[in-house]
Amino acid sequence: MQTTNQSRLNALLIPTLSILLGFIFGALLMLLFGYNPIDAYEAMLMGVFNSPYFMGEAMRQATVLTFTGLGFAIAFKAGFFNIGIAGQLLAGWVAAIWVALSFPDLPRIVLLTLSIGAAIIAGAVWAGIAGALRAYFGTSEVIVTIMLNYTALHLTNYIIRNVLTTGNTTDRVGENADLSVGWLTELTQGSRINMGLFIAIIVVILYWVFMTQMTAGFEVRAVGLNPDASTYAGMSAERNIILSMLISGGLAGLGGAVHGLGTFGNLFTQSGLPSLGFNGIAVALLGLGNPIGIFFSSILFGVLDVGAGFMPNRAGVPDEMADIVIAAIIFFVGANYIIRVALDKMRSSKTAEKGGE
Amino acid sequence: MAQAEKVIEMKGITKKFGEFKANDNIHLNVRKGEIHALLGENGAGKSTLMNILSGLLEPTSGEIYVNGKEEKIDSPEKANQLGIGMVHQHFMLVDKFTVAENIMLGKEKHTYGFMDDQGAEKDVKELSERYGLTVDPSARIEDISVGMQQRAEILKTLFRGADILIFDEPTGVLTPQEIDELMDIMKKLTDEGKSIILITHKLDEIKKVADRCTVIRRGKSIDTVDVKETSQQELADMMVGRSVSFKVDKEASKPQGPVLEIKNLTVKESRGLEAVKGIDLDVKAGEVLGIAGVDGNGQSELIQAITGLTKVESGTIKLAGQDITGKKPRQITETGLGHIPEDRHRHGLVLPMKLEENMSLQQYYQEPFSKNGFLKHNKIKEYAKKLIKEFDVRTQSEESTAASLSGGNQQKAIIAREISRDPALLIAAQPTRGLDVGAIEYIHKRLIEQRDNGKAVLLMSYELDEVMNVSDRIAVMYDGKIIAIVNADETTENELGLLMAGVPLEKAKQELANKDMKARTAGAAGNTETAVEDGKERETVANDESK
Amino acid sequence: MNIVSLLQLIVSSSLVYAAPLIFTALGGTFSERSGVVNIGLEGIMVMGAFMSAIFNLMFYSTFGAMTPWLGLLAGGLIGILFSLIHAVATINLRADHIVSGTVINLAAPALAVFLTRAIYGAAQTGPLARSFGFADIFLLEKIPVIGPIFFQNTSGPAYLGILTAVIAWVVLFKTRFGLRLRSVGEHPHAAETLGINVYLMKYAGVMISGFLGGIGGAIQAQAIHNEFGILTVAGQGFIAMAAMIFGKWNPLGAMAAAIFFGFAQSLARIGNYIPIIQDIPGVWLQVLPYLLTIIILVGVVGRSVAPKDLGNTFVKSK
Predict the structure, then answer these.
(1) B461 and B519: one domain?
(2) Judgement on whether residues B230 and B304 belong to the same structural domain of the protein
(3) Which of A21, A33, A213, C268 has the most CB atoms within 10 Å of its CB?
């Protein structure tokens, strides 16, 4: 059996090696098509790191990804695949903009709190539907959340075109719904980074406290790992399933609010589901479900996302390459069995599997 | 007797899993037409050895000779080709398929790839008649009895032309009568020239039916003996390596008032049928009440109803004077219930969690383990450490995951957790399943201790020995009802066996009295095959007379 | 319009939208019957759509009217290739089935658009050279009353799909291969002890699902969208999975469910022609297939129907 130290080391090595292997895979693919991977990666990374503006943008992206990543992670810990993060993010976005546009004259703190609060509730409810169906009917949340994603997409577009405005884009929210923070914007030479970053850091800490220090978090984990034993121990499997989905959706909704109010300041019709939702899944998997890991993973993904835009101009590589690298990284995280086997072999301690009878 | 040919010879078989030696230089030989028992405790290495023989595993070193020729058995197909067939302990049957489909799987009767269902069923019928193994070829596995399922397993091997059959712990799920039927089948097979290897840890079965026995202990072969010339005690000592006492030392019980009162309880199982059909039952303080019966007669549902895991259709359950019918598990636990669940991995522990977290699984929400919704980790750790020490749970630390413990230690951890809460009623369901003799002794001791401390203990087990040794009173469940309640020291295994098979108490007593008479008269005439052993008899008397 | 034309419109629209779903749902059936959850079929459809679009544009001059049909093959082949990734990950590398499927769903659109840009310099391919259009089914169209409704001006691929469903049913339930495949999804260890190569069977199941899923994507591109872009496959793979579950993992049931979902989806397009329905705001019709899927999943399906060992990782005993 592995010692605790070995498994802690693995927890660090697996994501690191996966990232490396993902980049290598991307490089090989680029070589195959005649692109220069060194140029591409250099363009991507240097483009971001050399510019305070793009660093700011990357951190802004990372902020939203942290929320969606944590959202996916908590559901995952409770034993679910909440693939509906994208739809819940949309729900939050719509709610936040709707409230902000409806009450533009409220004092800033009040309006922001209301808007963000509405977003959290919207996301929570959207996810809660899937949670309730799973808790009471045993319906697989995988398909339900995916269906709700597309429902949210169509509803969002409908609401924009028929309720919030008549065209495809809503008005911008007023300055009382402004999330930006003067000195941050200055520091990053006008990027859209905003106080969402601080909210994210606070949420990361709260998440950690919830999962490790509180009885409620203990229950969520237990139910996710073994619903039968947890029921016997007196926990309500239904309540915890629904609770974890509510929190999960709420976090995604919060991400939607920060994205809506902070990145754009308005809402516009979507042609597809926001990739921030699915990349949140990737962030959570790479961070191995750990809040600190998720935070740093989201920074990596933010850099990749923003840096991708440099590749077409500076290296002639389509910016989809970043998504491919991301997918490759996640592949290696998911298939980490092969990494673990390699690591164990390198440690040259033979794996002692359970003996038979 | 002339030297019978050796159909199987395993020489110097060693199998390593990493550093761990599951089999260490084992020697085994099986003669044609014999029933050769393979005796050993859980984890001794019997199944590994047989998995090697049946082609599922390859040995690290050693040779295997089949009919005198050295062979490399590198796949189940190869084993089949050599005439070796395995009847598994946990049936390898696909529930949704029919008997015929299961038997044919891998060697299907077909025309150009399209299956010939009718032809297959005909073939199966022929085969079953030839060996006297009754099955319904078109029935689905999930619809037939355990006994028929086992016969299907046996037919699978015969269909592939097995001459050497390996039976892996075949009697775990059978009533004593079904076990006798199985023994008949085994004798018939050897009469037809087949050879049988019987893996078991049940000494009385070895005495009943085996010719020779090889004892395995901790991966090594200890000795091969002639069963007729070896006593059960000797076999047990070889198996364990030290003197084993069978009887649990205990004083007479001093029962007081009832702690658990069940009246007219009806419980439905998952498909909507009644599993518990209106039973009355009491467990008193200071006694151990054992529930005996074959798996599937309502015992599991009964316990799940008491512990609040399943809905109660009708009836009442009172614990320590309070009505707990239909209440939630936590309320029932708080009223004074401890439960060692039948399936420790499913209900007893959250395996990926740390041991210390598992130790507080029932109480984490109460002080001192938590306050205002926040866990107090140091208190949880302290408690876990205390329990580990007191109950001698072998583990690296309280931070190790529950999954890293051995089965015996996992069970000890659960027992530690439940007993330490000092519950008025302790329910132990199959508490020693899959554990070695040392752990079994320990657990029985602790159960008796609870009872001596004036608590009530409800023991449910499918192992008749355990129920008889530990209980003060025994309630037998059959078909969802309590068919009889007897005193442990006034009953015999035969009586319990008949009760477990549904024979009402009066009739059971009568039958046993009759058989006793017949045995004495027939024994005097000297032409029967009665084997009288510790007062147990076989039903070959009737068969013999009809031949 | 008269009742016959109306019925013809409904039937043919339903079949057009159902065709990709039929094939993909059949694919899912094979994969899950062998015990492997393949939620990555969405991504495989994307790759199938992409490949068929490329093939269509590049080879129209060579094959003319046959091009879309051959495009199906192209889609199927790329589907097999992509499904191999999922197979290796879940069967040999012991990855969680849903994680692996999600990886494919992340990777496929990115890869496809990447390649589209690399080849065509834009994020979509532009209109295809030849799409499926409407077909009249040989002979059957001549049957009075039923003929015009069901067999005229309809979707050729859909009828191919129905035929495939029947073949799939026969293979799954009446052949040796099907029996062994199903045994692997129900009780792999039992199959192993009987000498069946469990890994091989699972590979077969996944690769068949890749082939059929790729064909589904190819139909999506060549019959419905008439181009390939990021929006060509938008959730169809998931709806196909729902059809498979609704059909209780039986090819004929999956086909029927797929046709039903095709009908639901077609309402958004043709609803205007149907009395009553034309008064419902468009958004409800758009959302209908998705909500319907949820309702059906909740109400109809008993979980005990799924293959017993579905989603579990099988490890050989050696």
Answers:
(1) no
(2) no
(3) C268
